[in-house]
Amino acid sequence: MNSFRLTKNAMHQLATEYTTPLLVISLEQIEYNYRFLAKYLPRVKVFYAVKANPNDDIVKKAAELGSYFDVASDGEMLQLTRLGIGANRMVYANPYKTPKGLAVANRTGVNKFTFDSESEIYKMAKAVPGGTVLLRVRVDNPKALVDLNKKFGAAVEDVPRLLRIARDQGLDVGGLCFHVGSQSPTAEAHIEALHIVRNLFDNAQKEGFNLRILDIGGGLPIPTLDANIDLAEIAEDINIALEKLFPDTEIWAEPGRFICGTAVNLITSVIGTQERNHQKWYFLDDGLYGSFSGVIFDHWEYELEPFKEGELYPSTVAGPSCDSLDVLYRDRMMPKLEIGDLLLTANCGAYTSASATEFNGFAKTPMIIWEDVKNKIK
Ligand code: PLP
Known about the structure:
7-stranded mixed β-sheet; TIM Barrel; 2 domains; binds pyridoxal-5'-phosphate; Lyase, Ornithine Decarboxylase, Chain A, domain 1
């Protein structure tokens, strides 16, 4: 699978011109990823999950490509509205919506929602009467890097009752949805989930429902440090199952990581070195409270490419804040580094800057667009 990756030379020139830390976004890679999905999952209507990376340029690029959007909050709905994206292109896909979120949905005209509980039905019926709703079903998948089903999804046995209540409350019961968990490494979980929801569609039909939409959520993976995932194979397998099980249903998906994960590189510098208990320590100018927040929130193991030859030593890599939690990795094999050395982290577009903070007064890492600057690279 193809990822955006700066050369050593480009990394050095950008670091000199813009200083570090620096995030470099490739909009061509966003386009490549979007078109890849359109090619391998041709029936799927893509709702880009803004939470993965809400950068305006990424969102605008996705919009220009024809994407719809999965939004999780009032903030995301207002951001997209500011960018001129119509409410008809959004699904408010947070099973637990805030009063502010529902008020903004009502005001802006967002009328597609997901839910997994009875209490949410009454909230939606009151705030957005007649809205189209998809019931999120729990599909366990311990193989996902982030198992969202520990928090979300109605139990299969509760589905008929919840659909009935939603209908009785005047909502437009459009269909079902699921999320197999983020960074799900094979098609297996998707296929298992498709069989589960097929049964639920059939049972609902017997009760007089005409479920017309299936939303297969996110979960599509990107390459990791130790595996170059075969996304074409995964998508083809999912597509075959969709054709067999849901030939006439409208299919939606909410990919986040897949759209933006491979499109961003981070350049950091070593700002301090230390030796502690016979182990080298390297302090970087970005850390757990910044673009590497995904070490905690996303359980991600990031590449740290120094473009340096030489023997490798178990090393500790830490961020710049004054908190002892701010250690990215211990015993990471690294060559000897010095202050000023640069490190490249590719595949870091998803759940990185999105969850960064300004703790200790460190500003969030600036972002530039590769296609705006690449002609300047000699
Ligand atoms: N949809 C929902 C409701 C989510 O909660 C998430 C991620 O948390 C996504 C989509 C995006 O998932 P992924 O990044 O795995 O594609």
